Amino acid sequence: MIAELFVCASLTAVDGDTVRCDGQLMRLLGGGIPFASGIDAPEIGSHAKCLKERKLALIAKGRLKELLEERGLRIEIKGYDSTPARRPLVNIYREDGRELGRMLQAEGFAREWRPHQKNDWCRGKQ
Known about the structure:
Number of strands: 8
Shape: globular
Number of helices: 2
Strand content: 25-35%
């Protein structure tokens, strides 16, 4: 599949692995492959399973927000999820070629995601 490039007038962090581009929700892949690999960040608000996860989610969202403030970001759509909203699955690259989701993972704000794998943010590091 050839990646589709996307341009946003407004790009904001929803949580640590989801962005909003001109109103459209998009899920970060972190350099992964749709439905095979990606990143997972803690859930925000009522979706969190514990207070620790809620706090981690706000920190991850804050870091992603910082990264989104950079100029020259390139968004590549790699596919669409299977939800009714059909959210685009994206990789977002900095001008230096680094992918934002991978950066979040390397910095400890996100973890690897694989099908049928659940990350438990309420217990210790996995």
